[in-house]
Amino acid sequence: MSTPPVHENPPLGLLPKLIFASRWLQLPLYLGLIVAQAVYVVHFVVELTHLVEAAFGNQTALQALVSSIGYKSDAAVTTLNETVIMLVVLALIDVVMISNLLIMVIIGGYETFVSRLNLEGHRDQPEWLSHVNASVLKVKLAMSIIGISSIHLLKTFINAGNYTDRVLIAQTAIHIAFLLSAMAIAYTDKLMSSDH
Questions:
Q1: Exposure of 50 in the CB half-sphere (CA atoms within 13 A)
Q2: Of the candidates 48, 29, 52, 30, which has an alpha carbon nearest to the alpha carbon of residue 40?
Q3: Rg for the chain, CA atoms, rounded
Q4: What is the Cα–Cα distance from 100 to 107, expressed in whole angstroms?
Q5: pLDDT (tens digit, 9 = 90+) per residue, 141-188?
Q6: How far is CA 144 from the centre of its chain?
Q7: Are 19 and 92 in contact (CB under 8 A)?
Q8: How do residues 15-52 score in pLDDT, each as one tens digit?
Q9: Where do runs of H (alpha helix) occur along 23-160?
Q10: What are the phi and psi torsion angles at 54 (to 5°)?
Q11: Which of 101, 108, 171, 178 would disulfide-bridge 137, Cβ 3.0–4.6 Å?
């Protein structure tokens, strides 16, 4: 039984080689996003440390938390209350969701636009990476942005007394715009995939 012949790719000309190699110009962008993710990790640890210290009565940590979440009250905040805890936890969740978004952009973008990561069969390969392409990545990113926007909107509503009606309406309108955009992206993707 004979083996099928192996077809070698024809050599590329100089201009196609240059154009194809230009995809590596995105590498510094993805490395920069990794640095940004490291900054988010440091921010997360600082906020979590302040939360734990404030739970044990540290007034400096409590004031750092209150100022970082933008919480204002008629009376001075001297103890950790439920609203402050909720706003800090939502801020921590927000950091995690943005970090997840960064991972999707870094890994998915690199795999889609720069080079293969060759993770097939690796036990830690993300499930979504096995079927990622530009279209899937767009929908996943849109869904992540909606999740982040939802957290921001919830934080704003919990702390509504510190915002004007204009800000509340604007944030709600922006969130609705994100929802409509994601629905349009998903619908367009469905139309394109049904055509194939």
A1: 23
A2: 48
A3: 23
A4: 11
A5: 888 889 889 998 888 888 888 888 998 999 999 999 999 998 888 888
A6: 6
A7: no
A8: 888 888 888 999 999 999 999 999 999 999 999 999 99
A9: 27-55, 59-69, 82-103, 109, 134-158
A10: -65, -35
A11: 108
Alpha carbon distance 132, 103 (integer Å): 13
- The residue type found at 42 is V
Question: How far is residue 185's CA from residue 112's CA, in Å, rounded to a whole number?
Answer: 18
Residues contacting 129, CB < 8 A, separation 6+: 107, 108, 111, 117, 119
> Is the Cα dihedral 153, 158, 159, 164 positive or negative?
positive
Write the burial class of residue 168 (CB in 10 Å: 0-12 exposed, 13-18 middle, 19+ buried).
Answer: middle
Structure tokens at 193: 């995939």
Q: What is the rounded distance in angstroms from the CA atom of residue 126 to the CA atom of residue 123? A: 9
